[in-house]
Each structure stands twice: as C-alpha cells, then as structure tokens.
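Lab manual, section 2.4: Encoding a predicted structure.

Procedure: take the sequence of the chain (412 residues), apply the prediction step described in section 2.3, and record the output as structure tokens. A sample record is shown.
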Amino acid sequence: MTPPADHSISRRRLLGTAGATGLALGVAGGAAGYASAPSDDRPALTGVGADRVMFHGKHQAGISTPVQARGHLAAFDLVSGAGRREAANLLRRWSATAERLTAGEAASAGGHDTGIALDAGPSSLTVTFGFGHGFFTRAGLEKLRPDALDPLPEFSSDHLDAKRGNGDLWVQIGANDALVAFHALRALQKDAAGAATVRWQMNGFNRSPGATARPMTTRNLMGQIDGTDNPAPADKDFDQRIFVPSDGDPAWMAGGSYAVVRRIRMLLDQWEKLPLKDQENVIGRRKSDGAPLTGGTETTGPKLDRTGPDGDLVIPLNAHSRITRPDQNGGAAMLRRPFSFHDGFDADGVPDAGLLFIAWQADPLRGFVPVQRKLDRGDALSEFIRHESSGLFAVPGGAAKGEYVGQRLLES
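Recorded output:
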C-alpha cells in the first residue's frame, strides 16, 4: 500500500515520481505553488513525512491502513434544501481534495491553500467517507439504503448524547503529522460550505511511528495493549469479515465496509486506583506485555479453561478479553482501529479522556452487535468506561481513478 520512502529525494522529486506512476498531480500551477521547492537543494523529507497511502483503490484507505498517530472524526448534516445533487457535488469536491492532499499537494487545484502543512509531505494521510442512516431520506435514496445500516439497538450501559452521534455524512482523517491531519479537516470543512454543516467533530491520537524500539500494538489510556486479537489482512477470511462482497446487497456497497463509531469515556480515576493484579483480571491479560494471564506472549492463545491453585479460572469469566474473543461470540469479528482522546478536565479535575472506538465489519449485525450485547451483560470493564456517543455509517468501496467516492450510489 505505502511505497518505501526514498530518503534521498526532494519533495519536488517525490511528487514528480508520483505523477509518473499514473497518480496525477492535478493543475500544475497549484502543485508548484504549494508542493515544489524553489530548487532541488531543499532537504529531503524524512520517512514519516514522505510516506504516502494511495487514495484510489478497491477499498477506501483508512480501513486496513496501519493506524496513524493523529486522527479527526467528523459528521456532517446536509443543509436544508440540499439533496442528492448537492451531495454528489460535495462528494466530488471532497474526493478531489482528498486525492490531492494524500499526494502531498495543495488542497485546491488552483493553488489557494491555507499553508498549514506547507513544509510537510503526505505523512500517511488517509481520508475516508461514509453515509449515515438519515442521509438516504434527505437525498431521496431510501430504496438504496442498506438493511445493515438500520439503527443499532440500545444497550443498558449506554449514556449517549444524540447531538454527538450519527449524522448524514461521516469523515475519518488519519495522518502521522498533526498539522497534516488538521489541514485535511479544515479543507474538507471549507469544501462543505453551502451543502453540509458540521454536526459533531472529535480529535484523537495514538503513539507516533518510531517511538518504540520495534513496531508494537498500541496502548490505550488505561495503559493496556489494545488490538491484539484484531483480524489481519493476511488472514484468509479477512475480506469476508471486513468488506462487503462484490455480489453484496446493495450493489453500490461492493468493496465497502460498515463503521461503528463510539466515544467511550474511560473513568481513569477509578481505574488507576485498582491494584495491578485487579486491572489484569478485568482485562484477562498482563499489562506489561499483553500476554494472556495463562502465559506466553501477546499473540499466544489464552487457555480459557485453566484454573489456579484456588480452583478459580485464571482468566475470569467476566474478563474483557474472554468475552470479546470471536470463538466466544459465534465467530463475530471486527477490525478495531481506534484513537485515544483527551478533551481536558472538568471542574473537579476529572479527565474527559478515553477511546474513539472505530470498528469495521462487513455486517454490524454479525460483528459489533452480538459482541456488544454480550459485553452489556457482564463485562468487568463496564464499571470503568462509559459509552457517550454512537454512530453507524455505510462506507462505500474505493473510487477508481477519475471517479469520486459514493458515485455508484449517487449516480445510480
């Protein structure tokens, strides 16, 4: 997906090479005004800055792409009077902007740009677009709304704020540079003027590339390794679990996926009072290295029936890792691709922090819903978290060169 970075080339040569491989640079004046150095003496970009994820493809980027250091999530509602035509024009603008930005170019073909990310390269930027349940009514496309997009059921542990959930259109932005990520967010928000307004927006982060001695599964704000049992692209059934098949229904969702988005606040003051052993029993894994409590390494399978000297199960029945295992949920699996968040402290000094949970699956009724129902009935972690917002979005397949995301739906 991402080509190896060539540290010996300048930004000008980087972009020129991309154009030579069939990824057009757009209007030459715009690219030159933003991306090209005055001369080839300009220092080469580092590996992080030069890394690029292609915008066009069978699937949208930002799903199986390795998680980035910085993320922004935003939902938009169509303005009053806007419908299918306005939505198509917006997705066309958004796709063109995303194609340029993921190549390290200016946000607009005419060269007009805020300059926020002027000195940076693509930095593994991805931009992913999706449609919410209400979009199809506003766009007059109810007959093409997927059954899988039916509203999620209510869960007893939810404390949801409707103003920070759902939405007509959804955008996920990820990058390994904070300025590059914000630049994309600002550009897309400006593109939406007159067609859609921001309903809600959230900011997240992860560990930066190169911060550890070797690539490692990221940790969440509870200090736990998070994502060990994720499906991997190398798995033979990965596409079957994560992406809608080519003969799926509706046809416009072929190659797409469904994103469940939840803002999960972590009650860190309560969690951090727990002794280490109790924290590990809640999760069912060692905090130090993510290995199951029954031993081995992070990737060792847990021995769920093993008991200790006291006769009790080593991994408790209500341990989070036990409940969420696919083999404990009829094979239900999701690709979790979250960001952590911290939105300050309240008047009592309590952190508003936690996880922007993003789960990808071919069908949420077979992925997220059965797992969350089981968690809702007795997950030991539930005492230390609170689900505060929720959304479900149909994310169509990727756009081919010359197409825009959602074209098969909006021009069907």
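Check your result against the sample. DSSP finds twelve helices and nine strands in the chain.
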